[in-house]
Amino acid sequence: MFNNLKKKCKPNDWSDFNLEGYSVPVTGFIHSKNNPLENGMAFGGVGTGCIDIECDGTIGFVSAFNSLSPRRGPVNMPMFGISCGSESFLLSTAPLKNYPEDSLNNVQLRRAAPAKDIFYFGHYPMLDMEYITDSPVRVSSRFYTPFFPGDAAGSNTPGGFFEFYIKNPTDRRLEGNLVFSFPGPSAEEARGNLKFKHSVSKHGGAKILTVKNSDKLGYSMGVIADATDSPRFAAGGCLNVDGNYWSHIGHAGTGGGHEYRLPLAYDQPGGSVSAGYDAGPGKTVRITFVLSWYAPFVQSGGAPICGDRGFTDGRTGENNNKEYTHMYAKRYCCPLNVARRLIDSAADIKRRIVAWQSVVYANKIMPGWLKDTLINGLYVITEDSLWVQSKPPVGRWCKNEDGIFAMNECPRGCPQMECIPCSFYGSLPIVYFFPELAVSTLRTFKAYQYEDGATPWVFGGCTVGSAHYELTTPRRGYQVTTNGISYAAMADRAIRYLNDRALLDEFYCSLKRNMIYTMELNTEPDGVISFPNRRASECWNYETEWFEVCGWEGMAAHAGGLHLAQLRILERMAAEKGDTEFLKRVQTWIADGQKSMEEKMWIEAPQKYYLNFKNEKSGNVSDYIFGYQLDGEWIARFHSLPPVFDPARVTETLKTVFNNNVRLSKFGAANYVTPEGELAYEGGGLGIEYNANDFFPPELLMLAMTFMQDGRLSDGLGLAKRCMHEIVCVQGKSFNSPNLIRGDRTQSTFGNDYYQMLMIWALPAVIENKSLEEYGSDGSFVKEIIKAAK
After folding, report:
1. Taking 80 as the threshold, does the pLDDT of residue 502 lie above it?
2. pTM for this predicted structure
3. Using one digit for the tens of pLDDT, what is the confidence trace for 721-780?
4. Phi, psi for residue 329 in degrees, rounded to 5
5. Is 695 strand, coil or helix?
6. Strands across the sheet containing 672-673
7. β-strands 555-556, 602-603 pairing
8. DSSP single-letter state for residue 303
């Protein structure tokens, strides 16, 4: 499998090319030394933890053994090397250490030479790499893990494959060894149980090394032989970054004058396996490695613990570390069990991945750059997801089949579970492809709803002082006035897409209670579109919303529009439920809110737009042009609801935003612009400020879609493309989704692995002008992906 990625690589842009196994051309960004990747692609499934595979061929961050926050790594350790005769070659561009003289022959070995370059094409959950080395053989690889849209259980498999192709371009027979080295769990991840047993077993034609301690924590790594081949097999300890070890992977039978050996394992957690190859002139040999891991217990503090160490609650001062059980431990009993199941279905796993991705690549409506970002955007589910069983400390309300599925906002920067605005931005592909997981999350929000109707801000995490992966300590947070629209929109997406009346019945009362709570935060005239006039936040003495560091007060176009969108969702639900009394209340709130918005917030000079905020009591007014003031309108249109704002004024506002906020940003749209058309900033609410050039990419995507919904498809697509081009092609963040980036220069202000960026999955329905109900029907873009993945 040699795709000549080097020839297809474009500097700073996407490429269209043919790829082995795909019947249609693909679009992607090919990374190399000259087009570096900031963070490697995640190797893992849904709720399994993962291993990041870096562009230089090393292991990056690792969460497979439950070092979730802080995350272990980057490990910076090569995984693979190859020999040809007595010469050794590293399949990594990273340097090695420790090159002593050979103790047997007292001669200096020829050092294992690092690769000159690696051409790297990630299309999650698949990764193709081609290695540029001095070896007489050519080497390419394809890595893949089970990730199947429509199959949550199958995607909840902790492991995958590393498939290598070794081509002999010469006219003579070549032989050598391909080595796979893996460090295993760290001492902390082993939680003090540091004695690991190494054992080798067979499964069909595969040979498997299993390394585990008495707690069953560990992994299996093995070699799968082709039907016509039975490669030489060896197992040992981890080679780490030791140049002496890597220099000894050549085999003695070729007259190299030194002994072929892997390091001894003893009882250490690291391991290695090797497979011999024998390639005739012009022939290609395939060798496939399998890797599985098993670490069934996860700590709410985000990191494995030993003894009495734990996480101290910032609010109570108590040690509140809790232990949850991974859902995959319900399906598998040990790493060898996982490896055997993977081996039994290896060909089918690869077929299913290629099939569902081919549906995306074959689509004639979506532009190529969008196809690439749709596919790779899904990586963040692996980085951020946690799926645990319904065992204590999870409450008895939780169904066994559900467990709790939750996403962490940003494990390396703002670790907290199921931050509700992040899930508003990022839940759509979960609804599309794993609806049972989306419902699990919604049921958790419902179970944690406060008596007064407030919905939680998080299940637990850093901004509320609890453990970073806490799932049973909900807090209402500090964006109380906009928590409700997130909850309502997430529920409505599931109900509409699944066309499930039973879901409406299940969640209606909860959503109704939250709607009443939201409206009662300010019952004064104009209160429908206003910030709370009493303290509602639990964690800060400040009332804010999604744009949390901005100063907000009184009536606000953005938060007010979100309130009206929430009311529109509940208006339809109340009508469907036949709740005429509540329907009248909702319609009154809508009429009052729209009257306040159109009569008190709209201005026409010097430009046409809605005021940022206006407090008639204090006299404070912000007349900045807020670039994202129409979010509520996007929600209403995406959910096929009546308008929130006056439609004619939406068109005028978009003109103003395009001519000001978009004009002043190279890659997005500025948050704030003065009425005179100059950059501005609004901040200080939490003691910090956004830079005037900062913007949130998921918000930018919503704005781009609002242009599309208003008949400006080209402008909207262009706006979205330039944002994603900056993130993917310039900043190299295909697998490190940011939260906040600069619009004036190449710089990310904050965030890693933000699942907010899954907002990209809303674009196809907007481009096709399809409703959620239509996307839930057979034959839709989403349903065809699911069908192909079976």
Report:
1. yes
2. 0.95
3. 999 999 999 999 999 999 999 999 999 999 999 999 999 999 999 999 999 999 999 999
4. -70, -10
5. strand
6. 625-626, 672-673, 679-680
7. unpaired
8. S
C-alpha to C-alpha distance for 206 and 288, rounded to whole angstroms: 10
The answer to whether 667 and 722 are in contact (CB under 8 A) is: yes
Q: Name the token pair of 91.
A: 């399949």
Mean pLDDT to the nearest integer, 438-443: 98
Q: Where are the alpha helices (DSSP H) in 14-92?
A: none
Q: Are strands 58-62 and 284-294 parallel, antiparallel or unpaired?
A: unpaired
Structure tokens at 179: 């080595």
3-state SS, one letter per residue, for 493-516: HHHHHHCCHHHHHHHHHHHHHHHH
* Three-state DSSP string of 461-495: EHHHCCCCCCCCCCECCCCHHHHHHHHHHHHHHHH
Nearest to 442 by CA among 382, 497, 521: 497
Q: What is the 3-state secondary structure (H, E, C) of 92-127?
A: CCCCCECCCCCCCCCCCCCCCECCCEEEEEEECCEE
Q: How far is CA 181 from CA 61, 162, 242, 262, 271, in A?
A: 16, 12, 11, 10, 6
| CB atoms inside a 10 Å sphere around CB 303 | 22
H helices present in 108-218, as ranges = 152-155
Beta bridge mates, 299: 323
User: Strand pairing partners for 541?
Assistant: none
Burial (CB count <10 Å: 0-12, 13-18, 19+), residue 414: buried
Tokens of 713: 């498809």
Calpha distance 197→764 (Å, rounded):
50
Two structure tokens written together for 71: 């995350």
Residues shown for the chain: 790
Q: Which amino acid is at 406?
A: A
Task: Summarize the chain as % helix, strand, coil (round to 5).
Answer: 35, 20, 45
One-letter amino acid at 167 equals K
Question: Which distant-in-sequence residues (6+ apart) come within 8 Å of 294 by Cβ?
Answer: 158, 212, 216, 217, 218, 219, 329, 332, 334, 335, 337, 338
Contacts of residue 38, defined as CB under 8 A and 6 or more positions apart, other chains included, come to: 731, 732, 733, 735, 736
Q: What pLDDT, on a 0 to 100 scale, did the predictor assign at position 315?
A: 58
How far apart, in whole angstroms, are the C-alpha atoms of residue 341 and residue 329? 14
Q: Which residue has the tokens 């549906």?
A: 359
CA distance 139 to 227: 21
Helices (H), 227-334: 243-247
Stated as kind and residue range, the H or E segment containing 576 is: helix 557-577
Q: What is the pLDDT of residues 369-383, one digit of tens each?
A: 999 999 999 999 999
Beta bridge partners of 203: 206
